[in-house]
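Example 3.2
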Amino acid sequence: VQLQASGGGLVQAGDSLRLSCAASGRIASSAFMAWFRQAPGKEREFVAAIRWGSRYTYYADSVKGRFTISRDNAKSTVYLQMNSLKPEDTAVYHCTLGSRIILSTYQTDRNYDYWGQGTLVTVSS
């Protein structure tokens, strides 16, 4: 499976962006697709996840209510709609897919199998 992320850019605080991550190859209904982000000088952190075969979504507390993860099965694409962006959202955002994720592990990056190249989101104040 290859993942191609896009949609990053430079925006002002309060603006919105939508990230996309297109996957090649078959995605099992039990797989999780997620977004992680890494800010300069910080560790990579979980942002949001969705189970491919269901509508269950999961969010980090820092983005809950502002970000929405969704998927288009026909296009094998996952999206991250980011609203009310803050300067602290500035980071490289990576999409990832895990085939063996369970509910106790979806927030841990080492449990995911495939990673996209990352897309930079910069939010100015």
